[in-house]
Design brief:
Length: about 180
């Protein structure tokens, strides 16, 4: 929790500059320059007289100031160390992200190369498939033409032979003859 340190003679923390107050040069210089502090006076006076001015506090209050000052210094050192560890963690995290980005760039390039190869292979196969379909269609047409020609020739030969052999062979109709040729 961030608390104001005004009570200790330290200006409140301002993180707007992006640096912690302990890293800010002005703060560091104000920390080590002597500051004018009001003396601490004891509230219970042993003399019992209200006319006498208050005397500075005893060694106990000085010890309290030293303890508070030591705590403040330890807290500053601890905060500096914590900020250093935080910066190191952030740097490691950024390095991990950079490494991950580089690995993903390499993987992305590999995938792009594989995609280009597959796409090229696909185009080659489509071209071959189109060529084979065209050849198949051409061959079917030729086969159909050859069959028609054969049927026509057989019909011609049958019709010429049927005239000469009508008396010796039973008569078959042209449809029957075609059916036997096709089958």
């Amino acid at each position: 929790m961030l608390t104001s340190s005004v009570g200790y003679g330290i200006p409140p923390a301002d993180f707007a500059s992006g640096f912690t107050p302990w890293e800010d040069q002005e703060f560091m210089s104000s920390l080590f320059l002597p500051q004018q502090q009001d003396p601490i006076y004891s509230s219970n006076n042993n003399s019992g007289s209200d006319n006498e001015p208050n005397q500075p506090a005893s060694n106990d209050s000085n010890n309290e100031l030293v303890v508070v000052d030591e705590r403040r210094k330890r807290r500053m050192i601890s905060n500096r160390e914590s900020a250093r560890r935080s910066r190191m963690r952030k740097e490691r995290h950024l390095q991990d992200l950079r490494n991950q980005m580089n690995r993903m760039k390499i993987e992305n390039q590999d995938l792009a190369n594989r995609f280009a190869f597959i796409n090229h292979s696909n185009q080659v196969l489509r071209r071959d498939n189109d060529r084979l379909r065209y050849e198949s269609s051409s061959l079917r047409r030729r086969l159909s033409d050859i069959r028609r020609t054969l049927i026509f020739r057989q019909l011609q030969s049958l019709s010429s032979s049927s005239v000469s052999t009508t008396t010796s062979v039973p008569f078959k109709t042209v449809g029957e003859q075609l059916h036997s040729l096709i089958a």
